[in-house]
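User: Fold this; tokens only.

Assistant: Input:
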Amino acid sequence: MKLARAAAAVCALLCLAAPARGAPPAGPYSYLIGGDSEIWYPSGDAEFCEPDAPGSSCLDTSVSTGGTGAVLGTGVWHAHITGQADGDVGFTIAGQLAGSTRVPKPKIVVEFAGDITLHVEGVDVPLAVTGTGKFTCKNPLPHGPTFQCPGHAKLCGVALGRKKCFGTGSVRIDLAAAGGPWRLDTDLLTDPNTGAISGDGAATLQNTSSQAYVAKGKYSAKSDLSKLTLTPLDPTSKNKVTFSDTFGAYVPGGPSKKIKFKVAGVSGVFLIPIPPP
């Protein structure tokens, strides 16, 4: 009896000391990624008014961002320059989210098209306006309610049958900002003979827009570690996610595992939390 009790005690000690084992990944897994790894993007309505304009010169914008990081929107330049011009020129916005989670940098192109009335020596002269502008926006940590977008534009006007083009110098527009934690979902299958991992996944932003990915990786029974790469179904997309994880396992003193990603055009790193024993 004493030997049996001793054997039981040794077994209990070894069981407590041994870390729980994981398993080849099989089925759905989900990660909520937040903190400094949140993704922020242009979304909603904003306005910027030029402080030194002799009158009122304001640019209204309305934008949205999709799961790939594509930015689309519209706006209006309200040009009411005292004694010189009055009018509302519409514009379109198209671009791509870039930068990092700490400093997201949407890069956008603006196309202007509209009409302004010039006031020339008491005579109102209609002016047809077209033009293009390029802007790089920033909203660094701690993220604020808007992206500030300095840039330059070239405008052309046609009046009385004559056309003239000119550079505007430095111009700024604002884009409304939104964002927060995003979710990485995978559904995985492991070949029991080779350890090859296959499956699919999706990265979903706070606004519920998402991008689909294909999963490919390798499971090592020796290390109990699975290494994965997620590439977009869209072959033109440059987004990508790579990470390693010990699925379902807790390894005391084990290394922190990182998810490295470029999602919606934004690059970042997220440390996978180690679950309690």
